[in-house]
Amino acid sequence: MSTFNKLGAAAILALGASGVACAQSSVTVSGVIDTGFGYTSNAGNGSQNKVGMLNSILGVSNVGFRGKEDLGGGLNAVFNLQAGFNPTNGSQSATGQLFSRNSLVGLESSSGALTVGKQWNFNDDWLVGSVFKGGYNSGAIFKFSEFDAVSEIYNNTIKYVSPEVGGFQGGVMYGFGEAAGSLRTGQVYNIAAKYVQGPFFVGITFDREQDATLGLTNTGNVLKLTTLGASYTINALKLRLGAARSDISGPGTFQSIPSLPTARKAYAVEAGVDYTFTPAFTGSADVLYRKNTTLSNNTKVYRLLGIYSLSKRTSLIANLAYLSNGDGATESLISTNSTAIGGGFANQHQTALALGIRHTF
User: pLDDT (tens digit, 9 = 90+) per residue, 133-173?
Assistant: First the structure.
């Protein structure tokens, strides 16, 4: 090799080494373990009490890996992998899905973030927790039959989140149905906008899911969900108000909800308040109302929640919820042996008490 070629090769190697040295990357391991025990009335055959361990009170337990690499010029590569599990027996929270809570990779810069993979919708990103209180075994708006898309994760998606400008931020997510010969079969999209100014927050989202049934039996039916939420914080007090409207044109295979036998329209409202009594203790109270206008039935949920922080990472949880069904509604806090939509028996009421511990790392 000539001296000139040797010098050129050395320069290329030096530049490559410099690029590697300039690029900074980080990987963070984190997770949540949320478990405890609970009491439920009118479980089983609809008249039995049930006492047992709970895998999730406020959220599904998970362990995950989140990473970022500086690509230079303000551009970063990012990824997020989260695996859900059941603490009571160590099993996967979603059978056959390792990274059931997030599985995405993408790029972010001052122009926004673009990610691809299995991702949560904007309802969960911006409204659940801030307006709609979560709770898998404590009563939540997304546990109502027509409203699971208020908090849902979708497969095969592309998602863009804009930068925040003057308190405004927007986003759009598109999900491919992955059906040969059709872009619409199983198609999902979610658009959203929010505004934050001091103690005030407001957000609105729109979801649309297309029937994913393959072949000639595809109905073309769609699920549409419009969600609006707002909150206002005054010192230790936070006021919350949210509403959602669901319009399901008929039976179909949807990612967020089980197939319903007929077309249905429904709306749901949640009003809540959080109060920080001490730096360690926060109490919440919520009232939820669901009305199915197609079937003319309704469900009410009243809930009290207390969270006491033992440390920055560990909290004790106490949750008391009461559900009542009217005019033939079959919703439930904890599913019974009933095969009805909603997991409960017509017109039954149900009380659920959950006591547990939540640790983040």
Answer: 977 767 899 999 999 999 999 999 999 999 999 999 999 99
pLDDT tens profile 203-253? 999 999 999 999 878 899 999 999 999 999 999 999 999 999 999 999 999
Confidence at residue 16, expressed as pLDDT on a 0 to 100 scale: 42
Per-residue pLDDT tens digits for 46-81: 999 999 999 989 999 999 999 999 999 999 999 999
Q: Which amino acid, residue 140?
A: A
Q: Percentage of the chain with pLDDT > 70? A: 93
Please report, in angstroms and rounded to a whole number, the separation of the first and last CA atoms in the chain: 55
Closest CA to 133 of 280, 32, 239: 239
Mean pLDDT of 240-269: 95
Q: Using H for helix, E for strand and C for coil, what is the string for the chain?
A: CCHHHHHHHHHHHHHHHHHHHHCCEEEEEEEEEEEEEEEEEEECCCCEEEEEEECCCCCCCEEEEEEEEEEECCEEEEEEEEEEECCCCCCECCCCCCCCCEEEEEEEECCEEEEEEEEECHHHHHHECCCECCCCCCCCHHHCCCCHHHCCEEEEEEEEECCCECCEEEEEEEECCCECCECCCCCEEEEEEEEEECCEEEEEEEEEEECCCCHHHCCCCEEEEEEEEEEEEECCEEEEEEEEEEEECCCCCCCCCCCCCCCEEEEEEEEEEEEECCCCEEEEEEEEEEEECCCCEEEEEEEEEEEEECCCCEEEEEEEEEEEEECCCCCCCCCCCCCCCCCCCCCCEEEEEEEEEEEEC
